[in-house]
Design a protein that fits this description.
Layout (H helix, E strand, L loop, with lengths): L2 H7 L1 H10 L1 H15 L6 E4 L5 H6 L3 E4 L2 H9 L3 E4 L12 E7 L8 H11 E11 L5 H11 L13 H10 L2 E9 L14 E2 L6 E8 L6
Parallel strand pairs: 1-2, 1-4, 2-3, 4-5
Antiparallel strand pairs: 5-8, 6-7, 6-8
Length: 217
Amino acid sequence: MSTARVFDEYSERYDSWYDRHLPIALSEYYAVRQAVGSMGWPCLEVGVGSGWFASRLGCLVGVDPSLGMLSLARDKGLEAVMGRGERLPIASGSVSIVLLIVTLCFVDDPLTVFREAFRVLVDGGVLVACIVPRESEWGRYYRMLGAEGHVFYRHARFYSVEEVVDLGRSVGFVAESVTATLSYPPGVNERVEEPVEYSGVEGFACVRFRKGALPNL
């Protein structure tokens, strides 16, 4: 079964995760929001899913290959269109922000996704790529679930922050910062955390890239 079909079949289950784990979701949202900063719109989320993040960030355009997810995103008021990160149905140089929020782990070709993000961004535009770092306790936990046959995580490939930075740089992006959250391990009482600079242990990290800028990372 393809990843898109999995998300079609289990879209409601996916979306309900945010209600069942709201402290984690809010912690991740605050990290994304800080990573995005005050950069202007228009904004595009690639792999928009059910639109939970995009709708809260005011990122009104999303792309996803899953019809089930697109339906949920549209219910949240988003302009959600079918497409894949490897071939975005978006004009070159037309958006100021691209978001990849736990998307890279489910795409077939992450390097092409970065190239497409670079293409659609205006000069000086921002890409925020958020992952569950492979080396974190959360990364190890999700990989264990995947090995046990979890409906979503068995299809996921996890990356390190360094690998994501290298992917971005390889297509011309400049890495500016890494914002993170989830300092506690899975299985403890969930709580909302303020974002911090990535230290190498957090379970959710957002790398902020810019298209054409002087590096500070």
